[in-house]
Amino acid sequence: MLTFRAGFLVLAVVVAALDAGFWWFTRAQHQTSARVGFLVAFVLLLALLAASAGLVRWEVAAPLGAASTSGLFFVGAASIFSVGIGFLLTAVVEAALVRGMVLDTSPVGWRGGAWLISLSAAVVPAGLFVVGLVALK
Q: Which helix (H) or strand (E) holds 126?
């Protein structure tokens, strides 16, 4: 069943806009490289995860949103530009959206999916980011 969560979709647009600003800034400074291109593509993947979390059932949306949140925290913390602060702020907003979605829509007895959310939030984005950067060396 397709659901519609406007908060996640708006967040995806904001992340894509921050990503476009980062790309524009690096191109204006003539500092584009394969690593910058990878970072831009990685953040676009995070925006797609956030947009997907806004369209699917909550059982699927929670791990997608958690993975996107931790990826944004990771990129925001690693970024030296002022856009990193924007990524960190969007990660905080998305964390609140994921928490609110799980608390509002999950059944009272739902306890089995916490490991999936934790795993997707902690491992998937950081692992993909590290593998991508190592492959670019």
A: helix 124-135
